[in-house]
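Entry 14: structure prediction run for Major facilitator superfamily (MFS) profile domain-containing protein. Input pasted below.
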Amino acid sequence: MNKLLVYQIAILTVLYIGYGFYYITRKSVILMIPHFRQNETSLFNISKNDIGIIISTQNFAYASSKLIGGVLSDVFSCRILFGSGLFLSGLLNIGFKRDIQVSYLYSFSFLIGLVQGPAWPCCGKLLQNWLPKSQFGTWWSILSTSSNVAGSLGPIIATSIALNYHWSYGFMIPGCISMTVGYLAIIVLRNRPSEVGLTNYEETNVGNKTKTENENVQLEELGFKTKSKMLLSYPFFISICLCYFMVQLIKTLFSDWSQIYLIKSFKISNYNASYFLSIFEFSGIFGSVFSGILSDCIYYAKTKRYEELISKEKTISQQRPSSVKIRMGVNFIFFLGLILSLNLFNYFLHGKISLFFLLSIAGMAGFFSYGCISLLGVIAMEFTPKSFSGTSHAFASLAANFGAITAGIPFGYISKLYTWSYGFKLTEFSAIGVCFFLMLCWNSKSKLELVNINRKKQ
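Run finished. Output tokens:
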């Protein structure tokens, strides 16, 4: 086994396990709230409004920290940022006190969200540095399933710990493991292959002349404000952010609202409603992985064909295949599938719907939503050179987080004024509008160009 493969396996393993525990420690309060009434917390009472504030507080802190973390990943060591964030998450969980007050839960949730922001941008940056572009989408998709796995197993494990021991162990055990994995991450991870004497993966032009180093030098001289203006001057990048916003909005509506909507509006049983949510999350694993593999295969096939034409010294009128355009095309198909699943959810639900049809809608929604989420993260990073990718992903993630926030209080307010059904249908029409915007931006520039950087300097 060669040295490069050993490091790739080690890094991918640490990132997968580490990000899974990032997710578990971030959700620890929500997982343990049903068990807070036990033992010395028997007098503790928490309302639905308190739970909503906890979720919103954490999402706001996480969104803000993720934006900053994406920018920091372009400047500082991703190895240190990822490992230290996981270590601090574990430390906060271990330090969770038993004498609970609602205000303490607000503060704890805010701090957890704050320290976890750089995690995913660092994952993307490390994958980009350690893998060739033809495999980037596949491994990004596989890594993103770590949160699905953690989300599936977390509630079961948390309940078992709370019932067999004490709810406090639901914080301490994941906390200890997270601190250990965080320490190992600092030891095992490396920012790029050159740190261990290997050759870095570089972006090349048609003549196979390396250009990444020149891009890095020029981009490192730019400030955050200049980078922001450059990114937002590209309609294609705005379309990425808008699509990410809408996908995350729809995904959050399914994951957070669908269960209670099915029970309250259609009198569907608690078990069937919970099956709907489980299938939604489970099918997301396959959607995430399949979208990455499909986009990588198409990019590899088109690139190989292009290089064969180059080797034959034929006159080529077409440009080198763009990974961004290819992945965006696959994403567009998945986005249409997501709108279709939302349409079925809006117009074909009724109280006597068969369980098979209900779960089929859930499977479609999970498959297409997580497929889009996986692809859009890759597209945002590949839109710019590597030294700029953390910032571009941070902006796209911020748009996605605003989508999740919109699915909370704003959607709840609309549903209160009208009905839940009205809110879901309004979301579907908004998604169709985003589709038209994506088509309008399709022929615009799909890659940040150095010529714009040179103009900024003049």
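Notes: The two ends are 50 Å apart (CA to CA). Will compare against the previous run tomorrow.
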